[in-house]
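Postdoc handover notes: sequence design on the structure in folder B. Input tokens:
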């Protein structure tokens, strides 16, 4: 008999579900735009076993790959565990063998040399392959049709980094995938690997450099000519890990850095710009440059780390509702020496940004992200941070225009994906899971489809999910024609 800790990470909306299901023909209210055909993949952490430590985090949950498949006017749902080495070892033992989040010193000795990544953060599609990623290890390849796990992914033995980010960036013109791994040389190392693969999925380049200090670099960005590496002071320490402590502690007094280098350049060309102390960044909306050395990055920045356990480990006492922040644009003049750059506020606090894939690394007119509805009570508890978002924003960073879909307190909005429209005058569609509290400990979920250019309007379709869903982290849209090009189909043929 398994019970889970009575904490926000394991109860309420975050209560583990642990169901692998396949359901055809979900009930649809409204009309799904006929041009929406393909797969909405989601990464869902869902611990298969009670954690070894009651105060562990939702970030430790075993990765599940989930798919809403839009085909011939039908929507089918499926979800399956990623068969990581860790998942398989614990399944065999019928209990958790891996200890604290990213602390191998707390593991059962029987799994000393077993890969401990949980592949729970982002499903990434590149060159016909689907990967489940987690920044503490290598990706796992998953079959996009069967959702079965193919195995750990290292670019056919070419990748040297021991880790790979959950936030890769794909250039819309070249099809190259740019990515990085931090703690690339091992636990707590300051090594960062910067790499890219060509449009066919071959690793072309991997260069290593040293970070100013070992920090959680959750995301990065590319523009047409530059790569941007954000270092914010959520730091790690091998001695703390040896003592059984947390991997991450936020440092309110430590400075931040932005590394900027030519995206096809040498890491020796990296320029480091010193930023303000104590700030935290998880996700970056986009970056772009003007071809003449003016390089900008737009990111969600907050004045401390949003994760309560990372603040606590750093001795920071701050309530969730007292965290300040904004969407900020940092602009670097790469033609001039020096450490200074320009900062501009673009929008209210929030996270989980989305832009059309076609504008990755390019100037863009609008983007979307999640925030908290200032009207009504506090948002639903749950999700990886412990507090859900309940407001979808569309923002035009150029002129400050903001449109919003604000939901009442009992609702949670998961990260939207964007589906481009065939109509060039249409901004495309946003699709996201909405969770709603329907009883003291009962929750119901739907997939909503919203007109990207008119987020304040009611959804054009709501798809009912007949099982409970645990909050996802990130998602990825793969259109029908790309699914048909899956490497797994070719390799099976
Ligand atoms: C994040 C998520 C993670 C993680 C580290 O959203 C950071 C941020 C789902 O796992 O391990
Ligand atoms: Fe993320």
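Designed sequence:
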């Amino acid at each position: 008999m398994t019970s889970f800790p009575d904490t926000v990470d394991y109860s309420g909306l975050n209560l583990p579900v642990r169901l692998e299901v396949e359901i055809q023909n979900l009930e649809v209210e409204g009309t799904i735009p006929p041009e929406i055909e393909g797969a909405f993949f989601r990464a869902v952490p869902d611990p298969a076993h009670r954690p070894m430590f009651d105060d562990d985090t939702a970030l430790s949950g075993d990765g599940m790959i989930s798919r809403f498949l839009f085909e011939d006017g039908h929507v089918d749902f499926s979800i399956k565990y990623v068969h990581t080495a860790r998942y398989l070892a614990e399944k065999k033992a019928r209990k958790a063998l891996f200890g604290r989040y990213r602390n191998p010193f707390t593991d059962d000795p029987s799994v000393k040399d077993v890969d401990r990544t949980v592949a729970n953060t982002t499903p990434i599609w590149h060159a016909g392959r689907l990967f489940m990623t987690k920044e503490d290890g290598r990706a796992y390849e998953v079959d996009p049709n069967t959702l079965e796990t193919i195995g750990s992914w290292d670019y056919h033995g070419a990748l040297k980094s021991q880790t790979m980010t959950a936030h890769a960036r794909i250039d819309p013109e070249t099809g190259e995938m740019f990515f990085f791994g931090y703690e690339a040389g091992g636990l707590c190392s300051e090594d960062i690997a910067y790499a890219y693969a060509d449009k066919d999925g071959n690793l072309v380049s991997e260069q290593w450099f040293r970070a100013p200090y070992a920090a959680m670099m959750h995301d990065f960005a590319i523009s047409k000519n530059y790569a941007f590496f954000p270092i914010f002071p959520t730091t790690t320490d091998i001695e703390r890990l040896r003592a059984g402590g947390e991997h991450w502690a936020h440092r309110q007094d430590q400075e931040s850095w932005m590394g900027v280098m030519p995206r096809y350049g040498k890491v020796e060309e990296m320029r480091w710009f010193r930023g303000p102390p104590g700030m935290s960044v998880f996700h970056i909306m986009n970056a772009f440059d003007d071809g003449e050395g003016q390089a900008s990055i737009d990111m969600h920045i907050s004045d401390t780390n949003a994760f309560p356990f990372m603040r606590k480990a750093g001795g920071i006492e701050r309530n969730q509702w007292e965290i300040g922040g904004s969407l900020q644009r940092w602009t670097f003049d790469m033609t001039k020496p020096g450490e200074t750059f320009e900062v501009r506020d673009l929008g209210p606090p929030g996270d989980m940004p989305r832009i059309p894939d076609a504008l990755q690394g390019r100037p863009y007119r609008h983007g979307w992200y999640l925030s908290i509805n200032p009207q009504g009570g506090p948002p639903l508890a749950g999700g990886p941070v412990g507090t859900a978002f309940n407001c979808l924003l569309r923002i035009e960073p150029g002129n400050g225009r903001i449109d919003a879909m604000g939901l009442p307190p009992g609702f949670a909005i998961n990260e939207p994906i964007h589906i481009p429209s065939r109509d060039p005058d249409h901004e495309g569609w946003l699709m996201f899971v909405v969770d709603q509290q329907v009883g003291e400990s009962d929750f119901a979920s739907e997939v909503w489809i919203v007109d990207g250019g008119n987020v304040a309007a009611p959804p054009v379709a709501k798809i009912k999910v007949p099982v409970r869903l645990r909050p996802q982290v990130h998602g990825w849209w793969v259109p029908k024609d790309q699914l048909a090009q899956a490497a797994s189909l070719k390799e099976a043929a």
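Context for whoever picks this up: The pocket of fe (iii) ion (ligand 2) is lined by residues 121, 166-167, 218, 282-283, 474 (CB under 6 Å). Don't rerun without checking with the PI first.
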